[in-house]
Amino acid sequence: MISETTTDEHGESSIKPAPPASSDVGNDADGDANIVADPASLLPDLPVVPRKNATLIGGRIEKLDRVRDQLTIGLFGGGKMKVLFDPRTHVYLKGADGSAADLHEGERVYLDTILDGSTVFARSIRVKRESNLGESQGVVLRYRADRGELTLRDAISPSPIRIRLNASTQFTKDGRSVSADSFSDGCLIGVRFDSQPGSDVAREISILAVPGARYTFAGQIAHLDLSSGLLVLNSSTDRKTYEIRLDPSSSRFGQDENLQVGATVTVVANFEGSRYVARNVTVISPAK
């Protein structure tokens, strides 16, 4: 009940009950009480997602923060990346529309990402669950041509993966068909395989990098950590994401103040062991 304060002739105040509301006002209040507002309608509309070319990244959800709407992704090629999402992000589960509630730690996902300022934003997230067709990327630990078998170290698998090859397995490099002799131990490959009881049979093997070879990358920096020596590049050539290692002991990579997230760069790197190691990084245009 609402009260009002009055002051008597001695200047002292007292509290009196307010007069009862009229019946008309009461009826209106009762009517308003039956109206339930959608909390979402009280929030401001989110801005439209910027129209930019998306970059596909894949990995496993290592951490899911639903309070900050943030994912920590363990990337296929090694390393981690923080990615933001919100109600504008489209989530797909088994090819159908899903929601953020379908995201769980430990699941394999593919994300179409864009740079929104200095942050990486997921325009869409595809949750990969059990399927007959699998995909993997990693370094060949051992290739046995006589047995039609290879052992692969996948960055998101706790143990090496063994994959069988047969007469129908296709081999490609730089988009062209090559022979099985074109790759060996230590190569970085991508594999599409059929999951069968007891084994995985490779349908297609793409040779991505050969030990000791030199590669030139061009694109925009999506993530940069000079302390740990990690640069993640969204390639403008093939729209893929690459992790490139910088020598943390070298001061030359920290001397260019334009070397920041969002800058467009070219990187000359060697493939050493299981990773790309930068020999030279040139800033073409600074971050906007």
Extract low-pLDDT stretches. Answer: 1-18, 20-26
Percent of residues in helices: under 10%
Number of strands: 21
| Strand and helix order | EEHEEEEEEEEEEEEEEEEEEE
Class from secondary-structure proportions: mainly beta
Helix tally?
1
What is the averaged pLDDT score?
A: 79
CATH superfamily of the largest domain: Copper binding periplasmic protein CusF
Bulk shape: globular
Strand count, sense and closure of the main sheet?
7 strands, mixed
If you consult CATH, what is the topology of the largest domain?
Answer: OB fold (Dihydrolipoamide Acetyltransferase, E2P)
How many structural domains in the coordinates? 3
The share of residues in extended strands comes to over 45%
CATH class of the largest domain: Mainly Beta
Calculate the terminal CA-CA distance, rounded to whole Å: 58 Å
CATH second-level architecture of the largest domain: Beta Barrel
Radius of gyration: 29 Å
| Strands side by side in the biggest sheet | 5-4-3-8-9-6-7
Give a quick summary of the entry.
With 288 residues, this protein is mainly β. It folds into three domains: 55-128, OB fold (Dihydrolipoamide Acetyltransferase, E2P) (Beta Barrel), CATH 2.40.50.320; 133-209, Copper binding periplasmic protein CusF (OB fold (Dihydrolipoamide Acetyltransferase, E2P), Beta Barrel); 214-285, OB fold (Dihydrolipoamide Acetyltransferase, E2P). It has one helix at 23-33; strands spanning 3-7, 13-17, 55-65, 70-75, 80-84, 90-93, 96-97, 108-116, 119-128, 133-144, 149-154, 161-164, 170-173, 176-177, 188-196, 199-209, 214-225, 230-235, 241-245, 264-272, 275-285.
